[in-house]
Amino acid sequence: MAGALERIDAMPKIDLHLHLDGCVRPETLIRLARERKRALPEWDPGRLRPYMQAAPDNADLTGYLTRFDFVLPHLQDAEALELVAFECVQQTAASGGLYVEVRFAPMLHTREGLTADGAIRAVLAGLRRGEDACGIPARAIVICMRHHDEATNIAAVEAAARFAGDGVAAVDLAGDESRWPTSAFRRVFEAAAALGLKATIHAGEAAGPDSIREAVERLGAVRIGHGVRAQEDPYVCDLLRERRIPLEMCPTSNLQTRAVPGWDAYPLRRYAAEGLVVTANTDNPTVSGTTIADEYRLLHERLGMPPEEIAALVLNAADAAFLEPEAKRALKSRVIAALDALGLRPRHPDA
């Protein structure tokens, strides 16, 4: 029988938490800059990468987020967005991914005349190209930004609703959680709920468990982005467990943003053992210097998780996917068949 790492590498993978602007390859940024006659500090991919990647001594989420400011000026037209969205799907498929959800904030791509609808339409076109080329489904999640005002975020929600069921699967809240509390966005997510949109919210990364509780109880989140700091409050852990709220954990990113001080304190495996619904994801492949295959390997190498436990996370992700019922059934069948071929029998209702 193959060794543990070989089985993990061969296992099907799902990425539910991937940011479009955190997935831009240096080679692609160089291409976009040349075509648009924009300046870059370096024109060699290797020398450009440090401008796009989290610094080794990154101190917190605020510092981590500065890397996005470098990329965003190059993502202000439909062609650029379509290309990067297409490559998001390609990169996931290259790591053995069977499904990906790509999230982005359309209002960040309107600096040069593109509308929110135009940004969404371009990303969806790229995802569909990726689906056709790679043979895996892909969906979009529209982000509201914490530093945007209420009117701007409600406009983003309304734009998302116009594409609901046509590639847009949900809405999100992202940005610097340490500076803009989750409670400030109740009316935005009331508007989302009124439009029938599902919500996943970044919470419990740079702020404590109260942010998670607010996201679930007041903003209607049915999934939580990260949720690392739930461990600080037993009530919040119970809430997540009882409501079966999936956590979109991102190990490499969570360590880089100092959501936890180190691997010894990283709670993913313990959360899973305690009955929380846990998934593992990339967050920002370029910024974090990772792939979904890398994240699965780290679960084994740094947390000691055997292939069977990691396989259970894959099934959790298939269950949590923001997919239409028929497409979700097809995804779960494909995942289970692939795991069965590897001789994996995770403890999961569908396995």
Task: Report the portion of residues in β strands.
Answer: 5-15%
So what's the CATH class?
Alpha Beta
Number of H- or I-type helical stretches: 16
Which structural category fits the helices and strands?
alpha/beta
Q: Which oligomeric state applies? A: single chain
**At the fourth CATH level, what is the homologous superfamily?**
Metal-dependent hydrolases
- Count every beta strand, where a strand is a DSSP E run of 2 or more residues: 8
Poorly predicted runs = none
N-C termini distance:
20 Å
Major sheet characteristics: 8 strands, parallel
Main sheet: strand order: 1-2-3-4-5-6-7-8
CATH structural architecture: Alpha-Beta Barrel
Q: What average pLDDT do the residues reach?
A: 96
What's the SSE pattern?
HEHHHHEHEHEHEHEHEHHEHHHH
The helicity comes to 40-55%
- CATH overall fold name: TIM Barrel
Task: Write a brief caption for the model.
The protein is an alpha/beta fold. It has helices at 4-10, 26-36, 45-52, 61-71, 78-94, 116-134, 150-162, 186-194, 209-217, 234-243, 251-256, 268-273, 285-288, 292-303, 307-320, 325-341; strands spanning 13-19, 97-104, 138-145, 168-174, 199-203, 223-226, 247-249, 278-280. The protein has one domain (4-341): TIM Barrel (Alpha-Beta Barrel), CATH 3.20.20.
